[in-house]
């Protein structure tokens, strides 16, 4: 799903895809760029840095832009499928203290085709381990 015409390239060959803009990789890359950090730093180290920069305007702006892009994709999905809830997994849950409440607020404040149909936003129970547990279960 394309959310930005002429956006950044996606691994699928298109530009401006939701999966690129809504990925934690995009957020981490943007944060590392503005903070001049090594993009290979661990998630744990990035969390420590973010915890000390909660009032940093550049950090707030990057997170806000990331969440706005994520909400754009969510709005499109809600307008197509009208889900009651959307579960977000992966490393989003790992960084939930910086992202989750803001995302919930933005989703609730967004405008949808049908009135009052903002979905509940939930964190996936398995968080970042869902992929690896799923691959083990397939064996
Ligand atoms: Zn794509």
Largest sheet: 2 strands, parallel
Label the CATH architecture. Answer: 2-Layer Sandwich
Cross-sheet strand order for the largest sheet = 1-2
Number of domains: 1
User: How helix-rich are the residues, as a percent range?
Assistant: 40-55%
The low-confidence runs, each spanning 5 or more residues with pLDDT under 50, are none
Q: What is the global morphology?
A: globular
N- to C-terminal distance: 31 Å
Average predicted confidence as pLDDT: 92
Bound molecules: zinc ion
Secondary structural class: mainly alpha
Which series of helices and strands comes N to C?
A: HHHHEHEH
Q: What gyration radius follows from the Cα positions, in whole Å?
A: 16 Å
Topology of this structure?
Layout: H1 18-21, H2 24-35, H3 43-52, H4 57-81, E1 85-88, H5 96-109, E2 120-123, H6 130-138
Parallel strand pairs: 1-2
Helix pairs in contact: 2-4, 4-5
Could you explain the architecture of this structure?
By secondary structure, this protein is mainly α. The protein has one domain: ATPase, nucleotide binding domain (Nucleotidyltransferase, domain 5), CATH 3.30.420.40. It is built from six helices and two strands, in the order H-H-H-H-E-H-E-H. The chain has helices at 18-21, 24-35, 43-52, 57-81, 96-109, 130-138, and strands at 85-88, 120-123. A two-stranded parallel sheet has the order 1-2. The two termini are 31 Å apart. The structure holds zinc ion. Zinc ion binds at residues 10, 12, 14, 17, 19.
């Amino acid at each position: 799903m394309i959310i930005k015409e002429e956006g950044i390239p996606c691994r699928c060959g298109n530009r401006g895809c939701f999966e690129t803009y809504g990925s934690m990789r995009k957020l981490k890359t943007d944060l590392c760029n503005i903070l001049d950090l090594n993009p290979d730093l661990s998630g744990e180290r990035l969390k420590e840095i973010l915890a000390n920069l909660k009032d940093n305007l550049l950090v707030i702006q990057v997170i806000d832009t990331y969440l706005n892009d994520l909400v754009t994709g969510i709005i499109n999905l809600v307008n197509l499928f009208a889900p009651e809830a959307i579960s977000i997994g992966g490393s989003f849950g790992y960084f939930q203290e910086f992202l989750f409440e803001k995302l919930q607020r933005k989703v609730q404040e967004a405008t949808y085709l049908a009135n009052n149909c903002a979905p509940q936003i939930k964190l996936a129970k398995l968080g970042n381990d869902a992929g690896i547990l799923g691959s083990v279960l397939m064996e």
